[in-house]
Amino acid sequence: MKLEAKAKNYAEALLNVAVRIRAEKAVKNSLELINSSVKVSPEFRAFLLSKRISEVQKAEAVKSAFGDKCHPIVSDFLGLISGENLVKLFIEIGKAYHVKFAEAMNFVAVTAHVTSKMSDISEAELKASLETALGKSTELTINVDPSLIGGIKLRVGNTFLDASIQNQLENMRHSLLKV
After folding, report:
1. Which end of the chain has fewer CB atoms < 10 Å from its terminal CB, N or C?
2. CA distances from residue 54 to 37, 59, 60, 130, 168 in whole angstroms, order as listed
3. Pairing, β 137-144 against β 107-114
4. 97-131: per-residue pLDDT in tens?
């Protein structure tokens, strides 16, 4: 079985277990924590890839190292999977879980690029407007981009929406050049 297909199957199994105990988001956060640790720590990556350490020992070490930050389902799961591509597989599982989580929870991640810091009220209004327009609950991340003249750029899932003044000026320039 290919790595990606295997990861999707594992992600679906993890989500099914997480749904039963209502820990979907905690499992998602734990997968992200483990994957970010693998990316930033070559020692942790080497530890997970070591053939001298059993999977059970790896699971116990992850439990004690991360404590409450890592959900027990994820640390126990880490003790169940093995193989040469363990790190790649776990990263793919994290990606697949995120997609399945978004589908199951009717959820979408939105990143907004704005010119300056928004007030809490404005952020709440933007989040409510997005949720109404999309018909999904959103996780809104706001990035301040001082290079924007004005307006907003949104990334909704994998879709980019550009309502910046710079983009409108560029579109106007193209339409004027066509005439």
Report:
1. C
2. 20, 9, 10, 47, 58
3. parallel
4. 988 988 888 888 899 999 999 999 999 999 999 99
Please state, in angstroms and rounded to a whole number, the distance separating the CA atoms of residues 166 and 36: 34
Please state at what angle helix 55-66 crosses helix 72-80, rounded to 10 degrees.
160
From CA 9, how far away is CA 5, in angstroms rounded?
A: 6
C-alpha span between 99 and 73 (Å, rounded): 18
Which pLDDT tens digit goes with each residue over 34-79? 999 989 999 988 888 888 888 888 888 888 888 889 899 998 888 8
Cα 173 from Cα 165, distance rounded (Å): 12
**Distance (Å, whole) CA 104 – CA 92:** 18
pTM for the full predicted model: 0.68
